[in-house]
Amino acid sequence: MSLEQETVRIQAAYAIGPVRNPFGNDRLNDDLSRIFNQDRICLEDRSSIALADGQIAECRFIDSVNNETKELDLNDYTLCENERLFLVTTLKTTEAKDVCVRTFDIIGKIWVNGELLFNKSGPFRFRLEPGEHLLVIEYFELRVNYSIRISDMAFELSNATELTEDYLSYWLDQRVQVVSESAYAVNSDLHAFYIFGADRLNVPNGTPVSVIVANDEGRTVDQFTACTGMRVEYDVRAISHETYCMLRFHLMYADAYGESRVTDHLALVHPIENVLSNLDRQYEQLVLNGFRNEIDNIQLLGLLNRIRAVAALEPAKVLVKQLRLVKEHWQEFVHACRLIEEGHRFEDTLIERRIGDGYYQSRLDDSLERYSIVLPDGYSSDKQYPLVILLPVCRYELDLPDVRAFFQDRMDEDAILVTFTCRGVTMGSYVGEASFLEGLDVIQQRYSIDEDRIYLSGYSNGAFAAWAIAQAYPDRFAGIAAYAGSASADKLLNLSNVAVLNVCGEFDYAIEASYKKPAAALGGYRYQGIIDPQATHWDTCYYHHLMYGIRWLLQQRRPEHPQRLHYRTDNARHRKCYWIDHITFAQEHPFGQLNAELKTDSLIQIDTLHIDSFEVTLPREAMAERLTIIIDGQSIKLQPNTSSQIRFQKSGDEGSCWQQEALISSKGPLAYASIGFGVLDIYMDRIKVVLPDRYDSLQEESIIQRVANLYARPKNNSWDPNIYVHYPIIAASELTAADIMQCNLIIIAGKMDNHGYLSMLHSQLSIDLTKQADSCVQYIQPNPMNPQKKLLIMASCNYENFNKHMYTRKLTIPSYASGIHPHLNKEVIQFNGRLQATNLDQFITTR
């Protein structure tokens, strides 16, 4: 593998193993001789090799490359517990080079010429002299998608943008890390950790490190000297009496310029239960005194629950990041209790601390959800602040200590930054969209937000969510930053008035959808694209949390009344674009599209495709008393004293004529507004799953319970199939008036007489279920008892049909990226020996 190229990847190597982890090779081992016998590992023409502990390991040359990652394909290998796989190859260079290595999801170690340079520890850089160099990778775990991008620092710097400079500054410059097997040292004599230099150019092995040991209160209880590249075995038993729970090691060293740098490490020396006992007593006292509001109670419980989750971990799984979290929540809890006792709100704690975790009880499924927030210094509710929302790749992406490390000392802008869940790898689709909108609503209710300066930022699935949500609601966002995420190509022009920062690797497997199509569609608008040279999808992950993108976003502002609008929608929920609202499209078409332009203060031109109706709120620039609106070539001159809100509806035998009509009095959902979302529209709101009150057999009960669990805990088709919701399941007799007013309901029934609620609605159902005797019908309609909410009804007189119907056997919710689903995005799915899907009006007409 030659470094004469600007960047290289390991695309050929000798694979040794899988093999039981060699004796003496613990997480902190940096000595290759404990693994291999020879100083120079010669593997040519060998099918096996003897390891230092006497094991004989299989050895074979591999050069199969994964087309997406551009890395060696390791899918033929599986590692069991305590097994290892080693890759051995060489790096060649004809001249001295400074080398930068960007890693993604490498769970293991990397040695070059016998020197340990990586230990599950992030990007690193070092110097290579001319010649051939031995590279060894040890895997503890194998991941399908991983990356090891090895590049010449001269190439990195020659292509340096402000973004790459930000990356080098945060992730590499003068960086030292601490590695440990576990942070759990309760009842231990020694706690071992390894001081690790990521920047070997400026902090070589042997750099002196001064270590100050502090207790929970921050008081110094010991100090000693170490150095980088050193394994430290610290006597915790001798000092454990000085602290209540943890010891904090402050490591101070001088960088290449003589400036002092600090990093830290934590060790747990007493059980976390000690902390919990004290916090529980504080909480119980607050309960006795009475809370001013339930929101404070929910948030304190959220903090306690996360500390309890760490306390319940096995010792080997207690890592430093978990202890940092306990420390953060412990301090936040004590601070919050004091303020609540003084009559303040929980949020005042976050304002005073400028950073913290808040919680809310989700209206979707009653779960306790959290958000992590960074607030500006001197935050005041009398002022409105820009809001930057970081969308996670999966359920959550950053814990509070990560948020502090990335942003607290670097976020000097007068803005609010927040991250919260979208319930998994949903890419902002269906449940993900509903969860996002709920989280945004919570933040806007609790904090003072400038609605003209709300921004989205995400990497990979988070970037797709940013694209999808902004394309659906372009008038709500001033800008988005998308890092290696695909956009829906047919809706790109929806973002013609939204600022877009788009960052993508040159070799990203999805570059067409992630970069080329957005650049072609939006290049003439408020768009900035950045290509990361010779980078794959996974190499760009390090850019997402840098300040460059946040500063870029904060320069943008939402236009109040854009002169030109472009909007395309394929479902009835997404229907507003700035000064045009209540857009509906013809049900026989899969989408509707509208382009509008304020040409002069007295002329608006609107061109539509498949649109049935819409409302116009006249921009301030328009002169209503002499305004003409041209719709699809038809000129409509407004009468004097016309309202600033105007509704237009297609009419005529073939829908060829536009007429001005009275405004819709209600802004709530329209009847049958599930067009485009179909049965999945049920997941856009709070849900309860309602089962029969009685069953004719245990088998019927078992089958219906299985279907209920399927819909109460839906899945998606991704690397993490979980959608982190769990909707309540109740019997019809347990349904309350509040449930009917607040919830969408999923009704599952065999015989109608066994289901009290369905029987009560029988005469008001859109489909007469008694006439569907031989089929299993699944359909969505407004709830007759509350038309603002939906019913998803799944019924069959023969309960065994539930085992035959595709979507009562298995439910996988797609993403918006998949386009219109042929079945799930229809309002009716029927199985009567064959599967049929249609919309409700067509189903009723054909019956």
UniProtKB/TrEMBL annotation:
Query: Has UniProt tagged this entry with the keyword Hydrolase?
Result: yes
One Gene Ontology term of the molecular function aspect? serine-type peptidase activity
Q: Could you identify this protein by its name?
A: Peptidase S9 prolyl oligopeptidase catalytic domain-containing protein
Name the InterPro entries for this protein: AB_hydrolase_fold, Peptidase_S9_cat, Plant_Biomass_Hydrol_Est
Look up and give the organism this protein is from. Answer: Paenibacillus curdlanolyticus YK9
**Would you kindly state one Gene Ontology biological process term found in this protein's UniProt entry?**
proteolysis
Q: Which PANTHER family match?
A: FERULOYL ESTERASE (PTHR43037:SF5), UNNAMED PRODUCT-RELATED (PTHR43037)
Q: Does the keyword Signal apply?
A: yes
Which residue ranges does the record assign to the Peptidase S9 prolyl oligopeptidase catalytic domain?
Answer: 436-487
